[in-house]
Design brief:
Bound molecules: zinc ion
Distance between the termini: 15 Å
Order of helices and strands: EEEEHEEEEE
Helix content: under 10%
Number of strands: 9
Largest sheet: 3 strands, mixed
Length: 115
């Protein structure tokens, strides 16, 4: 295992706040989330990471970066999905039959810190 940032345990946080944590069990960032990042994690699969501007570079490196958009509207709320097309945004999952959906869940993530 490398010591770069990685996706942490799933979160039930639905407020628009950054879920970066410097290490497992450490207090999380509480900045307002400004960016919603979709990443592909080897363990969790496609997963959405809410992040502030400061921690966006870390969130982008926590897995295979797929998409991102401004954190707004339905982002991070229960019962929503990440829509790839025709627009890259989060919507309620009953919003239409002919869209390409990716079911995602919100997760916290952390950076492993080596001594
Ligand atoms: Zn942050
Ligand atoms: Zn979103």
């Amino acid at each position: 295992m490398d010591d770069g940032p990685r996706v942490g345990l799933p979160s039930n946080e639905h407020r628009a706040i950054c879920l970066y944590s410097p290490a497992p069990g450490q207090p999380r960032c509480t900045n307002t989330a400004t960016i919603h990042i979709l990443t592909d994690d080897p363990h969790y699969g496609p997963i959405a990471l809410p992040t502030c501007d400061d921690h966006a570079p870390i969130a982008r490196a926590a897995g295979t970066h797929l998409l991102e958009h401004h954190h707004e509207g339905w982002c991070g709320l229960p019962g929503t999905r990440w829509v790839h097309e025709p627009v890259n945004r989060c919507e309620l999952d009953d919003s239409g039959p002919n869209r390409t959906f990716t079911t995602v869940r919100t997760s916290s993530y952390h950076v492993e810190q080596q001594p």
